[in-house]
C-alpha cells in the first residue's frame, strides 16, 4: 500500500513542481509585491503597507474598468451560453449539411484572437465597414461603433460572444448526445411537446455542463485583453477599459509593477469569489446521474 502511494507521488511530482513553480509561487509573489513600492532605477522598493490598495480605491480609471467589466461579464456570459446551446441543439438534429454547420460554428474558436479582432475592426470600420455598407444601403446615418463611448464596449462584447460561443457549443453538443434516446421516445409516447421536454428533461441534464461553461465564461470575461488591444485600447475615454487591459497598461506601459500586482490580486480574488459562488449555488441544483 505504501509502495503504491510512493509510486503515485513520484508520478505526480513533476506536475506538482511545475504547478507550484509557475502558478502558486507567482501568485504568492504577486500578493507580496502588492504591499511594496515599485523599484525605480537605483531606488529599491520599500514596504508601503496598504498604500497601493488605498490608491486603487481612489483610482477613477480602476473604478471605470470594474464597472465596464461588470457590464461586459453580465452580457457575454449568458449570451455566449445561450447562443452555444441554441447552436448545439440546431446542429444535433438531422439536417442537411450538418457537418459543415458544425465546422462553421466552431471556426471562430480556432482563429487567433488577434485575427478575430482585426476581422471585426473591418466590420465596424466607419464609412467602409460591412455594417456601415449595410446601413448606407438602408439609408441610415453613419455610425462609429468602436470610436464613440456609447457603443465601444458593446462592440467588443459582440466580438467576444462570437469568438467563444462555438467553443462552448462543442461541450453542449457532447452533453446532448449523451442524453438517452429512451427519454425522448418515452416523451414522444406521452405526447410531450419539445419545449416541455427541453425544460423538464434536457435542461436539467445539461446543468453540469452549464456550470462548467459558466465558470469558464466568467474567467474569459475577466481575462479579455486581445480584442481590447487591437480594437479600442480601452478607449474612447476609457469607455471600453477592462480590468486585465488596465493591468497590462499599468504593468508594461507605465512599468508600475507594484500597483499592477495590487490590481492582479483584486482580479484573482474576484474570480475566486465568483467562481466559488457559482459552484456552490448551482451545484446544489445539479443532478450528475
From TrEMBL:
Signal peptide: none annotated. Coiled coil: none annotated. The keyword Calcium does not apply. SUPFAM superfamilies: MetI-like. Gene3D superfamilies: MetI-like (1.10.3720.10). It comes from the Bacteria. Residues 66-276 form the ABC transmembrane type-1 domain. Pfam families: BPD_transp_1 (PF00528). Keywords: Cell membrane, Membrane, Transmembrane, Transmembrane helix, Transport. It is found in: Cell membrane. It is a multi-pass membrane protein. Its main location: membrane. The chain crosses the membrane at residues 70-90, 110-131, 151-174, 203-222, 258-281. The keyword Membrane applies. Belongs to the binding-protein-dependent transport system permease family. This is ABC transporter permease. It comes from Marivita lacus. The lineage of its organism: Bacteria, Pseudomonadati, Pseudomonadota, Alphaproteobacteria, Rhodobacterales.
